[in-house]
Amino acid sequence: MLKKMLFHWKSWWKSVYKQNHFVLKLGFSIFLVGLAFRLLFSRSDVISEVQETPFVQKILFSPPPVSFSLPEVADQIGPEEQAGMCNLFIGDWIPDPAGPVYTNETCKFIEDHQNCMKNGRPDNGYLYWRWNPRNCKLPRFNPLKFLQFMRNKTWALIGDSISRNHVQSFLCILSKVEEAVEVYHDKEYRCRRWLFPSYNLTVSVIWSPFLAKADIFEDYNGVSTSEIELHIDKLDTSWTDQFKDFDYMIFASGEWYVKTAIYYENDTVLGCHYCPKKNFTELGFNFAYRKVLGNVFNYILSSNHKGMIFFRTATPDHFENGEWFSGGSCKRTKPVKEGNFSLSEVNKILHEIELEEIGKATAKASEKGLNLKLFDVTSLSLMRPDGHPGPYRHFQPFAKDKNAKVINDCLHWCLPGPIDAWNDLLMEMVLNGQ
Length: 434
Ligand SMILES: *[C@@H]1O[C@H](CO)[C@@H](O)[C@H](O)[C@H]1NC(C)=O
Ligand SMILES: *[C@@H]1O[C@H](CO)[C@@H](O)[C@H](O)[C@H]1NC(C)=O
Ligand SMILES: *[C@@H]1O[C@H](CO)[C@@H](O)[C@H](O)[C@H]1NC(C)=O
Ligand SMILES: *[C@@H]1O[C@H](CO)[C@@H](O)[C@H](O)[C@H]1NC(C)=O
Ligand SMILES: *[C@@H]1O[C@H](CO)[C@@H](O)[C@H](O)[C@H]1NC(C)=O
Ligand SMILES: *[C@@H]1O[C@H](CO)[C@@H](O)[C@H](O)[C@H]1NC(C)=O
Fold this sequence. Notes:
Blueprint: H1 2-7, H2 9-19, H3 21-41, H4 49-60, H5 79-82, E1 91-95, H6 116-119, E2 129-133, H7 143-149, E3 154-159, H8 161-174, E4 181-185, E5 192-196, E6 201-207, E7 212-215, E8 228-235, H9 237-240, E9 248-252, E10 261-265, E11 268-273, H10 285-301, E12 308-312, H11 345-368, E13 371-375, H12 378-382, H13 420-431
Parallel strand pairs: 3-6, 3-9, 8-10, 9-12, 12-13
Antiparallel strand pairs: 1-2, 4-5, 5-6, 7-8, 10-11
Helix pairs in contact: 3-4, 10-11
């Protein structure tokens, strides 16, 4: 039945389209995430809409993952909240007249695509907010105290371009006390390491969008020449090789899983996600993500790691009034209240898998004396539709033509911006063992 469906996916899609509005919504969500990748990882300054067309068609007119089931909305209220205790990730964004601790003038680590100030974003109200957990106090990140505490320590952020976005915020804040010095980068500047010399603290960012072994066939514009080959049973050696050298690690993944990929196990094809032209079983991205996260956590659990390991959940995009290719944008200038923005179906699925897999792992970790922590920024990020570069991914996009047609980036985060608050949260978790 399943195979038949896949072979006749066109007519199947038509009938589903008529019957099931949800599938349509899912299609669009997947589409959005798909776009996000192009924005995320392409290095060209112009993303051609023409180039995108085949990709768009592929996503919109392919069947959704068959093995997919709609998760319940994650139940975020744990026993601590019932007892009135502190959950750092439940709260509100409140006005903060103090504003950011660094600017485009004082920090040299901000990547051009996220340097909204330099690129001419006209409003700055989005800078004057801080995250306020409902049942606890969250102090501002104190870079001096942090550096003193982190003498001789090694940190690593492992994941995709959102991890890169985060490391820049981290470096900008710490560099208020002492400027970081780059001590390593790979050819493509995807894996890098910095040192804070007086404190002998090193901070690395490791490019590993799947956390598992993946062969990716994409050019600089993010145009793929072949499907990604993802080995769901093999972890990415770019981080496992260095795992024992790091005292603190922040893992993150998710978004790349929505892309077309062929899944391998024991070096043989097991199935795929979105490959209608190939005669492989559609397994769904949720299958692969769950499997790989399970493997990542098993790897961590079987180590005797003495430091602290965080898993950061995937963050949502905020395209409104269209999709990224049809004029969708993120023009808001203020945070929203909880519930004003809803999580896309794709992000709900990713988040649900993350919570389930880390939930299982943290239970075992505490038995073993490992320090594994959930860093659940999905909901607080969802309330910040105002925090993305939008058109200001590029320098002065409207300088020549104020009606210029530009593609918006509603996925990455302006720096300074909302993700600076992630460091307040990290500091609290590290120093006060939350
Ligand atoms: C920083 O941004 C301001 C606009 O907010 C701009 O005038 C200035 O040139 C930028 N400086 C740098 C070094 O990018
Ligand atoms: C850092 O390492 C150096 C050299 O190994 C050592 O002398 C020093 O005591 C260490 N400091 C801390 C705070 O661990
Ligand atoms: C710096 O820290 C590393 C551990 O991260 C340690 O091995 C090394 O000895 C330290 N170096 C100095 C000069 O303190
Ligand atoms: C891969 O190997 C493992 C262990 O040998 C086995 O359990 C599993 O079924 C194999 N998977 C495939 C798809 O061959
Ligand atoms: C597709 O795969 C099935 C089972 O693996 C096989 O029986 C069938 O012949 C294949 N079809 C084509 C067109 O290769
Ligand atoms: C969200 O906020 C916007 C702007 O304030 C408002 O127009 C919209 O109705 C709100 N939507 C929901 C679901 O609360």
